[in-house]
């Protein structure tokens, strides 16, 4: 989500949404490469899956940091794809879905804190203030 946000800041919404629409296609391609999905070209569903990959998208970014934004958006697309593939495998193997969700949230929180500290090391940025921002988070 963070990569998607930074890609949005560097490009525009129309360009960013194209990358979100590519996530199912990237998941499908990675699943075929990892042999998690079978592409049977001699069947009707297999042909339809292949045609779905050929969909075109359009969008013209208007911001100055298009290369960096595109890299962030590509990283976001790949991250989402691998996340969904890993979640599908974990949900089949791990007996407790609530515990695995809690672990995922905990690890995501730890990663966000580490990344946040790396991006903004100013201690005053981490201080809580009684304002609308805190109320929004609590809500």
Automatic annotation (TrEMBL):
Any single Gene Ontology cellular-component annotation: membrane
Annotated GO MF terms: transmembrane transporter activity
Keywords carried by this UniProt record: Membrane, Transmembrane, Transmembrane helix
Spans traversing the lipid bilayer: 12-34, 66-86, 98-119
InterPro entries reported in the protein's UniProt record: WAT1-related
Protein name, per record: WAT1-related protein
Species per Swiss-Prot/TrEMBL record: Oryza meyeriana var. granulata
């Amino acid at each position: 989500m963070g990569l998607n946000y930074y890609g949005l800041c560097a490009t525009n919404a129309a360009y960013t949404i194209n990358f979100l629409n590519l996530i199912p296609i990237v998941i499908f391609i990675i699943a075929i490469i990892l042999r998690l999905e079978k592409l049977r070209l001699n069947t009707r569903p297999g042909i339809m899956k292949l045609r779905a990959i050929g969909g075109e998208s359009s969008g013209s970014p208007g911001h100055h940091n298009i290369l960096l934004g595109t890299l962030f958006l590509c990283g976001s697309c790949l991250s989402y794809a691998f996340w969904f593939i890993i979640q599908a495998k974990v949900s089949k193997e791990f007996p407790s879905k609530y515990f695995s969700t809690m672990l995922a949230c905990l690890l995501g929180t730890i990663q966000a804190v580490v990344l946040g500290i790396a991006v903004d090391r100013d201690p005053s940025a981490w201080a809580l203030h009684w304002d609308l921002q805190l109320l929004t988070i609590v809500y």
